[in-house]
Amino acid sequence: MRKSLSLFLTLTLLMLTTLAFAQSVWGNPPPPWWDPQWINYDNHLWDDGAITWTEVDEKHVNVPWIDRDNALYDENNPERGQSVEMTLLTRAYIPCYLEMRVTGNEGQTTIQSFGPLAKPEAEPTSYILAFDNEIGGFVDENWNSLGHGRNAEIYPGDFWKNVYIQGCDIFKVEVYANDDYKYEVQASPLTPYDANTEGNALDSLYLQMRYKLGLYGNFSRTHTFDRPDEIEEIAVMDACEELTVYHQFRVPYSRNIAHGRYDGKVIFRAYTL
Fold first, then answer.
1. Which residues, in sequence order, are CB contacts of 217 under 8 Å at separation 6+?
2. Across residues 4-32, what is the average pLDDT?
3. Quick count: other Cβ atoms within 10 Å of Cβ 230?
4. Exposure of 175 by Cβ count < 10 A (0-12 exposed, 13-18 middle, 19+ buried)?
5. pTM of the model
6. Torsion-angle region of residue 199: left (phi > 0), alpha (psi -120 to 50) or beta?
7. 8-state DSSP, 88
8. Which positions ≥6 away from 96 have C-beta within 8 Å?
């Protein structure tokens, strides 16, 4: 019993001695790791010992009047690409072109005008618009044929019945221009060449015409050329439009028209506007 008590006393003394030694080394016991005094404990654990410091503001300016706020630095950035540009006025001058082709009575004439002030005129003598009883023959007021022949027994017209000698063909005129244009026909009454027009005979032979636009058009009213250089307007066309006109002509054959030859002209004319 005394041994056990003696051992207990010895151990107690040892513990008190150890505690006294610990207090003499640390003072008060250490606080736990979450205590606020340990929050910044690891702040400098990873420092590398190299420090740089920069501050940008108006306090660090030596020349305050230099404009530093609107600078656009010249970086190689596609969004800030530079360019130069000039607009060159372009203008093309297309020369005027006008063409007319006349076909009829076994002949054809083509007339072409290239550029300004070009005014070609053709007056071929190789074929004519002939009025003859053997070729075109005779027609009535409505252009219906009455027959033809060298000695055709068809009486001259009088006040109750009109008779005409029609032209040798229906003439076809084709026109084109790359500008606005007008097409017209000019004619005068035919005048005697060797016919004796003294007395009761007429001293001129009026000319009549009708026409149609295109092959399948309808013939217009009959127009009479009974004044010198009379003009009949046929059509006004827009640029680059083609025009085809068919013309039919006749002269009167009546009891007051003397036998013989009569001469005249028909002018087919197209011009730009």
1. 246
2. 57
3. 16
4. buried
5. 0.71
6. left
7. P
8. 113, 115, 116, 177, 178, 179, 272
